[in-house]
Predict the 3D structure of the following.
Amino acid sequence: MSFGRDRGAGGLRGLEPVRPGPGLGFRGGKTAVPTLRQDGLWRRALAKDSMLRHVDWILILAVLSLSLIGTLLVWSATAPGLSQAGANPRAYLEKQLLVVIGLIMMTGVTLIDYRVLRMIAPFAYAAGLFGLLAVLSPLGTTINGSHSWIPLPGGFQIEPSEYAKIGLIMMIALIFGAAGERSTRPGAQPLALAVACTVPVIGLVLAEPDLGVAVVIVAISAGMIALSGVGLRWLALLTGAGALGLLAVLKLHLLAAYQVGRLTSFLHPSADPAGTGYQAFQAKIAIGSGGMFGQGLFHGQLTAGSFLGSYSFQGTDFIFAVAGEELGFAGCATIVVLLGLVIFRAVRIAARADDAFGLLVAGGVAIWFAAQAFINIGMTIGIAPVTGLPLPFVSYGGSALFADMIAIGVLQSIHRRHRVFS
């Protein structure tokens, strides 16, 4: 019996379900198209091969958190001194907001396949050497006793040694990565090439002179050589050569007078607390006076009185002491944890890299951040000599901040090309 299937309009045909075509609404309108398009965008954004799925978001959040804390601390550290000098108290804050440009650089490098970075490694290294040579020419300028900057229009400076770190890391990784593809363990030839690439960089940095950067470069090179898998006898030979080189530097009096004073005050803290050891002594007082939660931003008495040095030093070399006084132990611990998280993620990216080049580049960046953070924090608590090294992502500085962000972009590039979802 037919149940109205062949009836006219007055039958039960109206009870049949309506199946609109694709993109049609209840009355034939195209109301579903925007929803479908939005769903398609989300599917593409979260697809297996999308960029968002291959970005280390924990690393990004840690870097953004450090940059935000650093921007506030730089403002707090420099505003009192600038006000006393009759200058704009937000001058350093406005310059520190260049972190946005750093984030753009990081994003741009992230989009580059790290195999392309391997191809341009020699050019990056050569550019770093050229910059170090240029800064020693009449183009360079001396600030705080170091001929390390090239002045730019608008009151900015560029510090080539920061970018030379990236070029050197990529070059050493290229040398040992190529050697690893030919044999199971690198031998004398790649080791000699790596040392030959490192020595000119260290020599030019010491000529500025910038002992802190030179120490970081030595740590980076030594760590990457150890990661490359060279034999223990070559490591022992290299260690001996390094010790002899250090002895020669001390015996030939190649260090500047202020550098010798800093080393002496570190070895004998009570020898000259009002002279070469003054800043280190005041830094420890500032950190101790902060207590658990600090005196609050813009309320640090030692910071406001410029007891840690001029406002420029407080915003760069002694930014951790400012954090200790104004944010207390909780703030310092937060900075240390975030820095540790950045280093851990870099090590994780190195361990999961697809080839030796990626492993060594990521490992070199991890060593760079670890060594520089240890020295900067260590000099404020008395376990390392005072050097002109910024705290990664926290201290004021355009070149240092840009170089740090570029390094994070390189890490993300290596991470993106790892087949996590395969």
Q: What stands out?
A: The radius of gyration is 28 Å.
